[in-house]
Amino acid sequence: MHANLGDKNESGSVxxxxxxxxxxxxxxxxxxxxxxxxxxxxxAAGVNFPDTLIIEGKYQxxxxxxxxxxxxxxxxxxxxGESVKHLKVGDxxxxxxxxxxxxxxxATDAHARAADAR
Length: 118
Fold this sequence. Notes:
two-stranded antiparallel ribbon, mainly beta, about 5% helix, 5-stranded antiparallel sheet
């Protein structure tokens, strides 16, 4: 899976962000759905002002590095956690993820954030 991550330091590890131009695209591991989550294959992601603030480290929420920005996504359910009964693989969904939507896949809470988009 590819994801937009932060700046790299001299050792090559992602250390932080400064601006949108500082994002790097890297290969990362695919997310795995926890008990109450779904993994979404992202087809579209919204770009909003809070995303810019998160990238610059100026937003209230400061995810641990490395992370992929992007607070909202739409796509197709790729996998479901064991407690998820209202969604299944192949369902079209949207999710307010907080961050992580500027990647190819994102894991998000199925009950509070993912909704059937049909």
